[in-house]
Protein backbone atom coordinates (compact mmCIF):
# COMPACT_ATOMS: atom_id res chain seq x y z
CA UNK A 1 0.00 0.00 0.00
CA UNK A 2 1.39 3.46 -0.92
CA UNK A 3 2.03 6.05 1.76
CA UNK A 4 -0.60 8.24 0.09
CA UNK A 5 -3.27 5.79 1.16
CA UNK A 6 -1.84 5.17 4.64
CA UNK A 7 -1.64 8.86 5.59
CA UNK A 8 -4.16 9.74 8.34
CA UNK A 9 -7.16 11.73 6.97
CA UNK A 10 -6.54 14.71 9.25
CA UNK A 11 -2.99 15.10 8.00
CA UNK A 12 -4.08 14.82 4.37
CA UNK A 13 -6.73 17.49 4.90
CA UNK A 14 -4.13 19.78 6.47
CA UNK A 15 -1.74 19.31 3.60
CA UNK A 16 -4.51 19.97 1.07
CA UNK A 17 -5.40 23.18 2.87
CA UNK A 18 -1.77 24.26 2.67
CA UNK A 19 -1.69 23.31 -0.97
CA UNK A 20 -4.83 25.33 -1.68
CA UNK A 21 -3.20 28.43 -0.23
CA UNK A 22 -0.08 27.87 -2.31
CA UNK A 23 -2.06 27.41 -5.50
CA UNK A 24 -4.60 30.21 -5.31
CA UNK A 25 -5.14 31.80 -8.66
CA UNK A 26 -3.92 28.81 -10.68
CA UNK A 27 -5.08 28.37 -14.25
CA UNK A 28 -8.25 26.41 -14.84
CA UNK A 29 -8.48 25.78 -18.56
CA UNK A 30 -6.80 22.85 -20.29
CA UNK A 31 -6.14 21.97 -23.91
CA UNK A 32 -8.29 19.18 -25.30
CA UNK A 33 -5.29 17.57 -26.99
CA UNK A 34 -1.64 18.08 -27.82
CA UNK A 35 -2.40 20.35 -30.78
CA UNK A 36 1.00 22.00 -31.16
CA UNK A 37 2.71 18.65 -31.26
CA UNK A 38 0.21 17.09 -33.65
CA UNK A 39 2.73 16.70 -36.45
CA UNK A 40 5.23 14.97 -34.18
CA UNK A 41 2.54 12.66 -32.83
CA UNK A 42 1.45 11.61 -36.32
CA UNK A 43 5.03 10.94 -37.28
CA UNK A 44 5.58 8.83 -34.18
CA UNK A 45 2.38 6.90 -34.83
CA UNK A 46 3.49 6.29 -38.41
CA UNK A 47 6.68 4.70 -37.13
CA UNK A 48 4.62 2.16 -35.17
CA UNK A 49 1.68 1.10 -37.39
CA UNK A 50 1.03 -1.88 -35.17
CA UNK A 51 0.10 0.52 -32.37
CA UNK A 52 -1.93 3.34 -33.97
CA UNK A 53 -2.89 6.40 -31.99
CA UNK A 54 -6.17 5.88 -30.12
CA UNK A 55 -7.77 8.63 -28.09
CA UNK A 56 -9.13 7.36 -24.79
CA UNK A 57 -12.80 7.91 -24.02
CA UNK A 58 -13.83 10.69 -21.66
CA UNK A 59 -14.19 9.38 -18.13
CA UNK A 60 -11.99 6.37 -18.77
CA UNK A 61 -10.09 5.19 -15.70
CA UNK A 62 -6.39 5.23 -16.52
CA UNK A 63 -3.39 4.05 -14.53
CA UNK A 64 0.08 5.17 -15.51
CA UNK A 65 3.03 2.95 -14.67
CA UNK A 66 5.69 4.65 -12.57
CA UNK A 67 8.74 3.54 -10.53
CA UNK A 68 8.36 3.26 -6.77
CA UNK A 69 11.83 4.55 -5.87
CA UNK A 70 12.98 5.94 -2.50
CA UNK A 71 13.57 9.54 -3.51
CA UNK A 72 12.21 13.09 -3.52
CA UNK A 73 9.63 12.90 -6.32
CA UNK A 74 6.56 14.91 -7.29
CA UNK A 75 4.48 11.90 -8.33
CA UNK A 76 4.60 10.51 -4.80
CA UNK A 77 3.97 13.92 -3.26
CA UNK A 78 1.08 14.68 -5.62
CA UNK A 79 -0.42 11.30 -4.73
CA UNK A 80 -0.02 11.88 -1.01
CA UNK A 81 -1.44 15.41 -1.24
CA UNK A 82 -4.50 14.14 -3.08
CA UNK A 83 -3.91 15.94 -6.37
CA UNK A 84 -5.00 12.94 -8.45
CA UNK A 85 -8.37 12.87 -6.70
CA UNK A 86 -11.15 14.28 -8.84
CA UNK A 87 -9.42 12.98 -11.98
CA UNK A 88 -9.66 9.67 -13.82
CA UNK A 89 -5.90 9.12 -13.59
CA UNK A 90 -3.88 7.34 -10.94
CA UNK A 91 -0.26 6.19 -10.58
CA UNK A 92 0.41 2.46 -10.66
CA UNK A 93 3.68 1.88 -8.84
CA UNK A 94 5.64 -0.97 -10.38
CA UNK A 95 8.44 -1.34 -7.83
CA UNK A 96 11.96 0.03 -7.70
CA UNK A 97 13.65 0.81 -11.01
CA UNK A 98 17.39 1.54 -11.19
CA UNK A 99 18.04 5.14 -12.19
CA UNK A 100 19.93 4.30 -15.41
CA UNK A 101 16.95 2.24 -16.64
CA UNK A 102 14.19 4.84 -16.17
CA UNK A 103 14.51 6.67 -19.50
CA UNK A 104 15.19 3.51 -21.56
CA UNK A 105 12.06 1.91 -20.09
CA UNK A 106 10.01 5.05 -20.69
CA UNK A 107 11.33 5.16 -24.24
CA UNK A 108 10.11 1.62 -24.92
CA UNK A 109 6.79 2.09 -23.12
CA UNK A 110 7.46 -0.42 -20.34
CA UNK A 111 6.77 2.44 -17.97
CA UNK A 112 4.58 5.39 -18.96
CA UNK A 113 6.34 8.28 -17.20
CA UNK A 114 9.88 8.76 -15.97
CA UNK A 115 11.93 11.52 -14.40
CA UNK A 116 15.61 11.70 -15.32
CA UNK A 117 17.96 14.33 -16.66
CA UNK A 118 17.62 16.09 -20.02
CA UNK A 119 20.68 14.56 -21.78
CA UNK A 120 19.26 11.07 -21.35
CA UNK A 121 16.03 12.15 -23.05
CA UNK A 122 17.93 13.91 -25.83
CA UNK A 123 19.97 10.78 -26.49
CA UNK A 124 16.83 8.65 -26.46
CA UNK A 125 15.09 10.91 -28.98
CA UNK A 126 18.20 10.95 -31.17
CA UNK A 127 18.22 7.15 -31.20
CA UNK A 128 14.56 7.01 -32.28
CA UNK A 129 12.81 6.41 -28.96
CA UNK A 130 9.17 7.50 -28.75
CA UNK A 131 9.47 9.82 -25.74
CA UNK A 132 8.74 13.45 -24.94
CA UNK A 133 9.38 15.80 -22.01
CA UNK A 134 5.96 16.96 -20.79
CA UNK A 135 6.85 18.91 -17.62
CA UNK A 136 9.88 20.63 -16.18
CA UNK A 137 11.13 19.31 -12.88
CA UNK A 138 13.47 20.57 -10.20
CA UNK A 139 15.79 23.52 -10.56
CA UNK A 140 19.14 24.29 -8.95
CA UNK A 141 19.39 27.14 -6.46
CA UNK A 142 22.39 28.08 -4.38
CA UNK A 143 20.63 26.87 -1.23
CA UNK A 144 18.87 23.99 -2.98
CA UNK A 145 21.32 22.46 -5.45
CA UNK A 146 20.54 19.44 -7.57
CA UNK A 147 23.76 17.67 -6.60
CA UNK A 148 26.75 18.17 -4.30
CA UNK A 149 30.41 17.14 -4.52
CA UNK A 150 32.10 15.52 -1.50
CA UNK A 151 35.59 14.27 -0.65
CA UNK A 152 37.14 12.83 2.51
CA UNK A 153 38.63 15.51 4.75
CA UNK A 154 41.97 13.70 4.75
CA UNK A 155 42.07 13.13 0.98
CA UNK A 156 44.09 16.21 0.10
CA UNK A 157 41.65 16.91 -2.75
CA UNK A 158 40.63 20.55 -2.77
CA UNK A 159 40.98 21.75 -6.39
CA UNK A 160 39.84 20.37 -9.75
CA UNK A 161 43.38 19.40 -10.80
CA UNK A 162 43.66 17.18 -7.70
CA UNK A 163 41.14 14.81 -9.27
CA UNK A 164 43.45 13.55 -12.01
CA UNK A 165 44.24 9.92 -11.27
CA UNK A 166 41.31 9.66 -8.87
CA UNK A 167 37.95 7.83 -8.89
CA UNK A 168 34.65 9.72 -8.98
CA UNK A 169 31.34 8.08 -8.06
CA UNK A 170 28.30 9.13 -10.15
CA UNK A 171 24.77 7.76 -10.13
CA UNK A 172 24.77 6.98 -13.86
CA UNK A 173 26.54 7.71 -17.12
CA UNK A 174 24.97 9.99 -19.71
CA UNK A 175 23.32 12.37 -17.25
CA UNK A 176 24.12 15.50 -15.24
CA UNK A 177 26.74 14.02 -12.92
CA UNK A 178 28.89 12.98 -15.86
CA UNK A 179 28.42 15.87 -18.29
CA UNK A 180 28.17 18.85 -15.91
CA UNK A 181 31.28 17.58 -14.13
CA UNK A 182 33.34 16.90 -17.25
CA UNK A 183 32.41 20.28 -18.72
CA UNK A 184 33.48 22.06 -15.52
CA UNK A 185 36.71 20.10 -15.14
CA UNK A 186 37.75 20.75 -18.73
CA UNK A 187 37.15 24.46 -18.18
CA UNK A 188 39.58 24.23 -15.25
CA UNK A 189 42.28 22.55 -17.36
CA UNK A 190 41.74 19.02 -16.04
CA UNK A 191 42.45 16.01 -18.28
CA UNK A 192 39.23 14.04 -17.68
CA UNK A 193 40.70 10.98 -19.42
CA UNK A 194 42.86 10.58 -16.30
CA UNK A 195 39.80 10.26 -14.06
CA UNK A 196 37.99 6.97 -13.39
CA UNK A 197 34.20 7.40 -13.28
CA UNK A 198 32.20 4.60 -11.63
CA UNK A 199 28.46 4.19 -11.06
CA UNK A 200 27.34 4.29 -7.40
CA UNK A 201 23.65 4.77 -6.40
CA UNK A 202 23.04 8.01 -4.51
CA UNK A 203 21.96 6.26 -1.32
CA UNK A 204 25.27 4.34 -1.24
CA UNK A 205 27.63 7.09 -2.41
CA UNK A 206 28.43 8.54 1.02
CA UNK A 207 29.48 5.19 2.49
CA UNK A 208 31.46 4.24 -0.62
CA UNK A 209 33.40 7.49 -0.33
CA UNK A 210 33.96 7.21 3.41
CA UNK A 211 35.44 3.71 3.04
CA UNK A 212 37.89 4.85 0.36
CA UNK A 213 36.37 3.06 -2.62
CA UNK A 214 35.91 6.40 -4.37
CA UNK A 215 37.79 9.68 -4.02
CA UNK A 216 34.94 12.05 -4.81
CA UNK A 217 31.20 11.40 -4.59
CA UNK A 218 28.57 13.35 -6.50
CA UNK A 219 25.36 12.95 -4.51
CA UNK A 220 21.86 14.17 -5.38
CA UNK A 221 19.17 15.38 -3.03
CA UNK A 222 17.68 14.17 -0.78
CA UNK A 223 20.64 11.94 0.18
CA UNK A 224 23.24 14.71 -0.17
CA UNK A 225 22.07 16.13 3.15
CA UNK A 226 23.33 13.07 5.00
CA UNK A 227 26.81 13.51 3.51
CA UNK A 228 26.80 17.15 4.65
CA UNK A 229 26.55 15.84 8.22
CA UNK A 230 29.23 13.12 7.88
CA UNK A 231 32.26 13.78 10.11
CA UNK A 232 34.79 12.33 7.67
CA UNK A 233 33.57 14.23 4.60
CA UNK A 234 33.72 17.78 3.31
CA UNK A 235 31.73 19.38 0.52
CA UNK A 236 33.77 21.00 -2.25
CA UNK A 237 31.08 22.32 -4.60
CA UNK A 238 27.50 22.05 -5.76
CA UNK A 239 26.29 22.08 -9.36
CA UNK A 240 25.22 25.70 -8.77
CA UNK A 241 28.91 26.52 -8.28
CA UNK A 242 29.76 24.75 -11.53
CA UNK A 243 27.23 26.20 -13.99
CA UNK A 244 24.86 28.45 -12.09
CA UNK A 245 22.17 25.79 -12.18
CA UNK A 246 21.71 25.66 -15.96
CA UNK A 247 22.22 21.90 -16.02
CA UNK A 248 20.07 21.14 -12.99
CA UNK A 249 16.58 20.66 -14.46
CA UNK A 250 15.29 17.10 -14.16
CA UNK A 251 12.06 16.96 -16.18
CA UNK A 252 9.21 14.47 -16.45
CA UNK A 253 8.92 12.55 -19.70
CA UNK A 254 6.19 10.31 -21.10
CA UNK A 255 6.08 7.55 -23.68
CA UNK A 256 4.62 8.69 -27.00
CA UNK A 257 2.02 5.94 -27.23
CA UNK A 258 0.65 6.85 -23.80
CA UNK A 259 0.52 10.52 -24.84
CA UNK A 260 -1.42 9.72 -28.00
CA UNK A 261 -3.84 7.27 -26.41
CA UNK A 262 -4.46 9.15 -23.15
CA UNK A 263 -4.05 12.91 -23.68
CA UNK A 264 -6.52 13.73 -20.89
CA UNK A 265 -4.52 11.59 -18.47
CA UNK A 266 -1.29 13.29 -19.48
CA UNK A 267 -2.98 16.60 -18.64
CA UNK A 268 -4.09 15.14 -15.31
CA UNK A 269 -0.55 14.05 -14.49
CA UNK A 270 1.14 17.28 -15.56
CA UNK A 271 -1.44 19.35 -13.66
CA UNK A 272 -1.00 17.28 -10.50
CA UNK A 273 2.80 17.52 -10.75
CA UNK A 274 2.69 21.28 -11.27
CA UNK A 275 0.42 21.70 -8.23
CA UNK A 276 2.77 19.56 -6.15
CA UNK A 277 5.83 21.48 -7.38
CA UNK A 278 4.28 24.82 -6.42
CA UNK A 279 3.27 23.39 -3.05
CA UNK A 280 6.84 22.20 -2.39
CA UNK A 281 8.23 25.63 -3.29
CA UNK A 282 5.75 27.28 -0.91
CA UNK A 283 6.18 24.69 1.88
CA UNK A 284 9.71 23.25 1.66
CA UNK A 285 9.84 22.11 5.27
CA UNK A 286 6.51 20.29 5.08
CA UNK A 287 7.75 18.60 1.91
CA UNK A 288 10.97 17.50 3.63
CA UNK A 289 8.91 15.93 6.41
CA UNK A 290 6.85 13.91 3.93
CA UNK A 291 9.97 12.76 2.09
CA UNK A 292 11.72 11.89 5.35
CA UNK A 293 8.91 9.49 6.23
CA UNK A 294 8.67 8.07 2.73
CA UNK A 295 12.36 7.17 2.38
CA UNK A 296 12.94 6.51 6.09
CA UNK A 297 15.75 9.04 6.35
CA UNK A 298 16.26 11.23 9.41
CA UNK A 299 14.72 14.65 8.76
CA UNK A 300 17.91 16.65 9.33
CA UNK A 301 19.60 14.59 6.60
CA UNK A 302 16.92 15.22 3.94
CA UNK A 303 18.02 17.85 1.42
CA UNK A 304 15.20 19.72 -0.25
CA UNK A 305 14.41 20.24 -3.91
CA UNK A 306 13.25 23.46 -5.54
CA UNK A 307 11.11 23.22 -8.65
CA UNK A 308 10.63 25.21 -11.82
CA UNK A 309 7.60 27.47 -11.32
CA UNK A 310 4.47 25.77 -12.67
CA UNK A 311 6.75 23.16 -14.29
CA UNK A 312 6.68 25.08 -17.57
CA UNK A 313 9.54 23.87 -19.77
CA UNK A 314 11.89 26.46 -21.26
CA UNK A 315 14.51 25.82 -23.91
CA UNK A 316 17.80 27.05 -22.35
CA UNK A 317 18.28 24.00 -20.04
CA UNK A 318 17.58 21.70 -23.00
CA UNK A 319 19.85 23.60 -25.40
CA UNK A 320 22.61 23.50 -22.76
CA UNK A 321 22.69 19.72 -22.93
CA UNK A 322 22.36 19.58 -26.70
CA UNK A 323 25.49 21.74 -26.86
CA UNK A 324 27.26 19.57 -24.27
CA UNK A 325 26.39 16.31 -26.04
CA UNK A 326 27.59 17.72 -29.36
CA UNK A 327 30.83 18.92 -27.74
CA UNK A 328 31.33 15.48 -26.16
CA UNK A 329 30.86 13.77 -29.52
CA UNK A 330 27.77 11.97 -28.25
CA UNK A 331 25.36 13.72 -30.63
CA UNK A 332 25.78 14.69 -34.27
CA UNK A 333 25.57 18.45 -34.69
CA UNK A 334 22.09 19.49 -35.76
CA UNK A 335 20.58 16.02 -35.33
CA UNK A 336 18.22 17.14 -32.55
CA UNK A 337 16.63 20.53 -31.90
CA UNK A 338 15.35 21.67 -28.51
CA UNK A 339 11.76 21.82 -29.83
CA UNK A 340 11.96 18.08 -30.63
CA UNK A 341 12.46 17.21 -26.98
CA UNK A 342 9.54 18.78 -25.13
CA UNK A 343 5.98 20.06 -25.19
CA UNK A 344 4.06 22.36 -22.83
CA UNK A 345 0.76 21.48 -24.50
CA UNK A 346 -0.50 19.52 -21.46
CA UNK A 347 0.43 22.16 -18.88
CA UNK A 348 -2.51 24.38 -17.89
CA UNK A 349 -0.19 27.09 -16.56
CA UNK A 350 1.63 27.34 -19.88
CA UNK A 351 -1.65 27.43 -21.77
CA UNK A 352 -3.00 30.20 -19.53
CA UNK A 353 0.07 32.32 -20.28
CA UNK A 354 -0.25 31.61 -24.03
CA UNK A 355 -3.89 32.75 -24.01
CA UNK A 356 -3.26 35.88 -21.93
Automatic annotation (TrEMBL):
Protein name in the entry: ABC-type nitrate/sulfonate/bicarbonate transport system substrate-binding protein
Family note: Belongs to the bacterial solute-binding protein SsuA/TauA family.
Keywords in alphabetical order: Signal
PROSITE patterns to which the protein is assigned, alphabetical: PROKAR_LIPOPROTEIN (PS51257)
A Pfam family hit: NMT1
Compartment(s) of residence: Periplasm
SUPFAM superfamilies (alphabetical): Periplasmic binding protein-like II (SSF53850)
A single Gene Ontology CC term: periplasmic space
Domain SsuA/THI5-like stretches: 69-287
Signal peptide: 1-32
Cited InterPro entries: SsuA/THI5
Main location: periplasm
Amino acid sequence: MSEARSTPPARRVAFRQLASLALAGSAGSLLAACSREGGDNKAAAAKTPEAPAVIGKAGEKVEFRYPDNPTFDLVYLADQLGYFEGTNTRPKYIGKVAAPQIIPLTGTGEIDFGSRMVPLVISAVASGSDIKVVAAGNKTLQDAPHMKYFVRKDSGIRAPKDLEGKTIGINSFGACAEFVTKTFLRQKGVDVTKINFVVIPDDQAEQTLATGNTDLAIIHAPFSGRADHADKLVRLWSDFDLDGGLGGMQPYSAHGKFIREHPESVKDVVTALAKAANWVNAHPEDARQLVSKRINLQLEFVDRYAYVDNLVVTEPPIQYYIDVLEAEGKLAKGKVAAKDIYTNAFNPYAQAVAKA
